[in-house]
Structure prediction request, 349 residues.
Amino acid sequence: MDTLGGAEFAPETTYLNTASCGLLPRRAVAAVHALAEENASGRGAGAGSFETVGAARASFARLAGVPAERVATGGGVSIHVGLIAASLPTGAEVLVPEGDFSSVITPFSVRGDLKLRYAPLADLAEAVRPGTALVAFSAVQSADGRIADLAAVRAAAAAHGARTLVDTTQSAGWLTVDAGLFDYTVTGGFKFLVCPRGTSFLTVTEEAQESLAPLHAGWIAGEDLWDSTYGPVKELARSARRFDEPTSFLSYHGAAESLALLEEIGVDAIRAHNTALAARFREGLIGLGHEPVPAEGSVIVSVPGLTHRHPDLERAEVAVAIRAGNVRAAFHIYNSTADVDRALDVLAG
Prediction:
């Protein structure tokens, strides 16, 4: 199986570490370079283009299945989650899976006046109860690639009047998640969306927008940008753009190109490609006597008992990660069957 990215990517290693950081396509690198040169030379109107940020917002919205008016841009998942945490009343109960990524949990825990309750991921839907205000969880677990039962959690939350927050950082770009079915989603762009670091997205339903205060609103949150530069903003954006964080233009100029590439390839094609490679890797591991963490249908493969082989993989320039005491590999559009076989050959040695 060949790669899907073609000449857009130029990895110099067997790169199986997208769950940590995705590789940038050439077109994104060129866009960042062009803006940096423009900033260095004094040519151009400023530090970047709001139209380009808008293009990235619209592209992400299409990938997430929501109108662009529901999407806010930012620089990191924890900032978006912090905004949501600040909207909760004292004593509100937040239900989270045990061992979920810290950026999903910590903004709630540091408040000190919320009730955090933990449940195993497999039992998350059953753990929702009357009085639960919010269920916050990752669609795909960072540590081991397990996929949450999104439909079951959503149904349980709806039955008990709880809102939902889904982190799609490890799923956006290969797993279709309809963001419109959840009150909030947050997504870091630098993994499977192959965007530069400094890009993240928040989606908010119209109803949830009513109770979410734009605490970090600045001039870019104004409905009329250029009439919002001095004094209090006269009118905040009537869309989720009022929740935008100050823009990292270099990152978003690259992101617009990266997201456009993913749209060109198509999420369905990406999922089929990535999951086939992950399945091949799992089968090979089992053939070598290793048992991966059960994560059916995931592109992330986590393997216990192999951390001592990480130096061998590094020496062979096979890039993976160590997470939760396991070796973690992740497959994406710039990988091929040759990459899978290379990693298995090293582990068989």
In short: Residues 129 and 160 are 6 Å apart (CA to CA).
